[in-house]
Amino acid sequence: LFICIDHVGLAVPDLDEAIKFHTEVMGWRVLHRETNEEQGVEEAMIGTGDQLAENAQIQLLAPLNENSTIAKFLAKNGPGMQQLCYRVADIDAVSAKLRERGVRLLYPEPKTGTGGARINFAHPKDTGGVLLEITQPVAGH
Ligand code: MC0
């Protein structure tokens, strides 16, 4: 079903501060940055800078406003790991397979994620307590 771990998402209160920590202290590089209004997030992807297509990235997720799922997560849990994301080649086929196997997805149809990817999420209650995203990236991203 899955190609690889695409990214692990960390909820952070302030994106610039988190980027500073992960680049200056941890030595990662920023690979991509964008705002996703629909998801209520300001996000940055970080990694080694010369990584292979299958190397997982780390996604820093800051809330855009107080209605954001990330704002709710931070209020409840504080900063930390918010999601695990698996990459897929065909999100429609994988969604059908997961539903057939009893995993409920949050959206009836995929929404737009990082770099225009098609994304959906399985509820943590169906996946052993982990918010699981699936993503079909746009070729080249
Ligand atoms: C909530 N729960 C979690 C969780 N969020 N468990 C593990 N990981 C998480 N991230 C658990 C709570 O502890 C609680 O369990 C139960 O689920 C209900 O939680 P809640 O606090 O009432 O939260 P809800 O139900 O309002 O929202 C949870 C839900 C939401 C997963 C539906 O966060 C959501 O819609 N997420 C998908 C969208 C998203 O996360 N977007 C931001 C990333 P108990 O046992 O206490 O009942 S955007 C992104 O990722 C894009 C840009 C991309 O990568 O392309």
Automatic annotation (TrEMBL):
Statement: the UniProt record of this protein carries the keyword Cytoplasm: no
MF terms in GO: metal ion binding; methylmalonyl-CoA epimerase activity
PROSITE patterns attached to this UniProt entry: VOC (PS51819)
Any one biological process term the GO annotation gives: L-methylmalonyl-CoA metabolic process
Transmembrane spans: none
Domain VOC: start-end pairs: 4-137
CDD domains: MMCE
Database matches in InterPro entries: Glyas_Bleomycin-R_OHBP_Dase, MeMalonyl-CoA_epimerase, MMCE/EMCE_epimerase, VOC_core
Pfam families: Glyoxalase_4 (PF13669)
Keywords: Metal-binding
Keyword Metal-binding: yes
Family in the record: Belongs to the methylmalonyl-CoA epimerase family.
NCBIfam families attached to this UniProt entry: metmalonyl_epim
Name of protein: Methylmalonyl-CoA epimerase
Organism (species): Propionicimonas paludicola
Taxonomy of the source species: Bacteria, Bacillati, Actinomycetota, Actinomycetes, Propionibacteriales
